[in-house]
Give the backbone structure.
Amino acid sequence: MNKRTSLFSRIRMQTQKGFTLLELLVVISIIGILMAAAGASFSNAQKSSRDARRKADLKAISTALESYYADNNTYPTDNSCNPREAYLPAGMPTDPKDPTSAYSKNCSATAYCICDLLESGKGGNSDGVNDATCSNMGQGSTYFCVKNLQ
């Protein structure tokens, strides 16, 4: 009887060496759910990072334009609002998602307004901006704008 039990136990152990189909499906489903959650979080992190870059770029352009104004008593009047390389040594920044796309700009000798749409849809500062320089530039909390300080 002892030999029989031992033989039966060995046969039983040999037939139960793998996972059942149900166990594999449960594990694969859990991995899929975790991957979907990680993908969404990564996408949001990328959007927030690009928005932070946009805000930093617009503030750098504003600083350069204000320096230009301090030296020349006027803002650049060309359509690009470019204060030249002396003020922006790396050149005029572009949108981080689409480098061929430029920021929305409106410049005159006495004022400027530069705006861009934020991907995350939050953190903008253009609520209630109703002046001639920033008209039609993008209104609401999804836009971030810088305008003349003088």
Observations:
- Helices lie at 2-15, 21-72.
- The two ends are 101 Å apart (CA to CA).
